[in-house]
Amino acid sequence: MFKFNTDVQMLKYEVLYNVAKLTLEDRLEDEYDEIPHEIIPGTKPRFRCCVYKERAIIEQRTKVAMGKNLKRTMKHVVDGEEPIIQVLDIACEECPIKRYRVTEACRGCITHRCTEVCPKGAISIINKKSHIDYDKCIECGRCKDACPYNAISDNLRPCIRSCAAKAITMDEELKAAINYEKCTSCGACTLACPFGAITDKSYIVDIIRAIKSGKKVYALVAPAIASQFKDATVGQIKSALREFGFADVIEVALGADFVAVEEAKEFEERIKDLKVMTSSCCPAFVAHIKKSYPELAHNISTTVSPMTAISKYIKKHDPMAMTVFIGPCTAKKSEVMREDIKGITDFAMTFEEMAAILDAANIDIKEQQDVEVDDATLFGRKFARSGGVLEAVIEAIKEIDADVEINPIVCNGLEECNKTLKIMKAGKLPNNFVEGMACVGGCIGGAGVINNNVNQAKLAVNKFGDASLHKNIKERVNQFDTDEVDFHIGNSSDESNKSSCKEA
């Protein structure tokens, strides 16, 4: 059992654990409907008004944990896109929809600054108190900023506040609704909702069944894994995953090393014509550009993400392999299904899901052998935190003697990404390289983590990176046969690759 930060996270884990256990024991199809009663037994509710509502919520959670889509979710899906982030409508408590409200702190002052600043005349004075006409209010917030008594409160829903992509609205029943034309699958809303009414779809059933069927399934562990388990090493995690049935466990950070070299070469080749190039490793950042700033899509690096890079390498040398990404990122589940790279990585799961399946199999990480983990350089491992991608690209530029000057900017979280992309759209960005991470802190701040202390996680990732025996990216990637592996998007096949890491 792992220690979780909130009861919401614990409930999610309990559902995943039960789904995994029943799948391992080949009892899921017959007994999945018993999971709500297993988690909410008896007649006393744990959190809600009654056990019946709690069980109904667990029933929805179970469906999503089994990889299914909820009916209400499908009302908002466009163009057949697979929805990863889904609203559990029974769990949604219909938070207040009127964002600004005049509180009892209003003193009925005579300056009436709130009425003066309102551009729509939505505030009037009635009985010496300010009142908001919600038919006129445009929620600009000027009244709140102007009030000297802080008497106007901001009640923006936590899910809406968390979504920098502005993908969350309210439906006709005042339930949260996701606009999938804007959603990046970053999962920020899943962490923000105090009622746990938004969650990410899981593919653990498919993953477990693939392993049980005898297929050769590789676990691709993201470097952020070094920050997740205080009492266990990455080597012990590797042993635990092997015991679970994975054929081998490979560092995604090695794919990051491949990416760093390729992105450095691409930057040298494209920047004169492109003016600005963005990183491509964060799927939520890439999705945000494509959905909200489509005119900037050509500025995205064509180099694949580290997950896709290492999957390509493995499948080039082992065509029968299946690959499963394990990391902090819910958006990776969307990335594996993206049409231009679909099938390269078979599935993705989060650290939360990894914890659940290991527990379901009675595998204690702390009791495992601490085996060697020595795939990647310190630079590849530090991709997991904000600034790490840039550091690796700068290092690769130096190592390959690229004739180019880099003037970078690091965007830590989607809010900062938005600011930079708006300036970039206006053609006024002074920088020529943008590292974009949708989650604050980088991958270590993802929605699928167990340990959500970003500062602790950053220290752990840096320590894991510094422990690497490989300090030179070019030297490390040259030890691998990448000649026939295409690390770029847009070519018709892997065989069409014209530029391998070794040619750097």
Automatic annotation (TrEMBL):
Alphabetically ordered keywords of this record: Iron, Iron-sulfur, Metal-binding
Record keyword Iron present: yes
GO molecular function, one term: metal ion binding
Every 4Fe-4S ferredoxin-type domain range: 98-127, 128-157, 174-203
Positions of transmembrane segments: none
A matching Pfam family: Fer4
Domain of life: Bacteria
PANTHER family named in the record: NITRATE, FORMATE, IRON DEHYDROGENASE
Protein name as it appears in the record: Iron hydrogenase
Source organism of the structure: Thermoanaerobacterium thermosaccharolyticum
The organism's taxonomic lineage, starting at the top: Bacteria, Bacillati, Bacillota, Clostridia, Thermoanaerobacterales
